[in-house]
Design goal:
The protein has one domain: Phenylalanine Hydroxylase (Orthogonal Bundle), CATH 1.10.800. The chain is of the alpha/beta class. The chain contains 13 helices and six strands. Helix content is 52%, strand content 9%. The strands form two sheets. The protein has a four-stranded mixed beta sheet with strand order 4-3-6-5. Strands 1-2 form a two-stranded parallel ribbon.
Length: 311
């Protein structure tokens, strides 16, 4: 896509980017990063976000994340180029940041993880609205997620989790009754989404006597990274799979309930357990409630199960 089609409008601001709107109108999911479209306001947003997060990372982030930030050599003063990020990331674990135009259907997202690609938003929130954004942006994805992808044990866990999407699609395809197929697939997808939320997005890790953060939703939130560790109102429990897959969550406020692991080996073993439970039918009827499984996500698993492409 040529940047000339944007009528000279500069800026890749979340919900205000003509380049992204055009990509969506053309039906594009995977795109390139038109770096010259970033405005000074976009770079200012990155600078502000990075500067205020750095001391909180040093205080609350887990050691693997801090090592990852160092390994990626992120420039604190400007929005990163994905090709530069990948130059440092790929040799470590094989993962790559892959630019996307917007929402990625669930199956395609999980399958990207299986292939060591991480769907990455290229827009950034407005410089005057830094505190909360319901949708991901490049700061959440690159500064929140990607440093964890430099750790081999964590990266392998993501790949292992991504493999479960294919298994779920195959299970769905094996069910001949269409209503039963929809009900079971919806429950499995809900269980996978909850697992991802309470681990990859909002996971805690115990380091000795200290509680640290490894979930990207926390690592990219100035307010919640402190709140999740310091607040007496947050319940923190050692992770148990049966709790996680049956626990609903809401995205528009600080999380009142979080789970911790003591290592990424433990997290990997939980993914193995999740696979066993999926095969045994223990994910077929998880508790109702959030997150709701939208039609696009459900359809993506059904298409994959039938042998179609959702990418």
């Amino acid at each position: 896509m040529s940047t000339e089609t944007n009528n000279g409008v500069r800026g890749l601001t979340t919900t205000e980017a003509p380049f992204i709107e055009q990509a969506k109108n053309e039906g594009l999911l995977y795109i390139h990063q038109p770096y010259d479209l970033y405005s000074e306001s976009n770079h200012e947003a990155w600078r502000s976000l990075y500067a205020r997060m750095l001391p909180r990372w040093k205080k609350y982030a887990n050691a693997h994340f801090l090592k990852g930030i160092e390994s990626l050599c992120l420039d604190p003063n400007q929005v990163p180029r994905l090709e530069d990020v990948n130059q440092f990331l790929c040799p470590l674990t094989g993962f790559k940041a892959k630019a996307v135009a917007g929402y990625v259907p669930a199956y395609a997202f999980f399958d990207c993880l299986r292939n060591r690609d991480f769907p990455t938003t290229i827009t950034i929130r407005r410089a005057d609205k830094l505190d909360y954004l319901p949708e991901p942006d490049i700061f959440h994805d690159i500064a929140g997620h990607v440093p964890m992808h430099t750790d081999k044990a964590f990266a392998d866990t993501l790949v292992r989790f991504g493999e479960l999407a294919r298994l779920a699609a195959e299970i769905g395809e094996s069910i001949k009754d269409e209503h039963e197929k929809l009900v079971r697939l919806e429950s499995i997808i809900k269980a996978m989404a909850r697992f991802f939320w309470f681990t990859i997005e909002f996971g805690l890790m115990r380091e000795g006597k200290d509680m640290k953060v490894y979930g990207s939703g926390l690592l990219s939130s100035y307010g919640e990274i402190e709140h999740c560790i310091e607040s007496p109102n947050v319940q923190r429990y050692p992770i148990q799979l049966e709790w996680v897959i049956n626990q609903y969550f809401e995205i528009d406020h600080y999380q009142p309930l979080l789970f911790w692991v003591d290592s990424f080996d433990r997290l990997f073993s939980l993914v193995d357990q999740l696979e066993t439970w999926m095969k045994d039918g223990r994910l077929n009827n998880v508790s109702p409630g959030e997150p709701l499984v939208n039609e696009e996500d459900l359809k993506s698993f059904m298409i994959a199960g039938a042998g179609g492409s959702v990418n």
